[in-house]
Amino acid sequence: MKKKLCISLGMACLLGILFSMGTVSGDSMINNPKISAVPALQPIVPSPNIDGVVQLNWLLVYNVVGYSIYKTDPNGVTVRLERVWRGSTYRVSGLTNGIWQFQIRNVYNQNFGEFSNIVSIEVIIGGIIVDPPDTKDPVSSLPIEVIIILLIIGAGAIAIGILAFTKKGKKK
């Protein structure tokens, strides 16, 4: 009798946990507030873009089927590129001159989540992008031969200093 009661209570607890998670009830996990994260697109670089090809990047959101990807052209027309993309990067090509905008949204089993942030990029086909100034450490840009010579000179100076100090001590 006690064994049957323990098994019954155990099953009741298990079912209670499953219902509270939304995996057995009719709600499914779509309406579970624990997974309602909105994807965040990362900035597109470089901008301006000169070849009309960009890569969209975002962090994966837990418990989604995939992502719908949207682009808005310079005239304001929005088009869905993918309905259910399964990944965290997407390459877009064939962009023409102008400012393009992109958004994604989560796709669940039966519905869509909220839209992500909007990322924009200006496309200038054949334009010139100026490289940023060189910010390297000046020592690391020296040729290896110069660094070796400086090390030898420094080691020689240290050796001469040690010899001079030890000879001075022996004269006493």
Automatic annotation (TrEMBL):
The chain crosses the membrane at residues 146-166. Keywords: Membrane, Transmembrane, Transmembrane helix. This is Fibronectin type-III domain-containing protein. It comes from marine sediment metagenome.
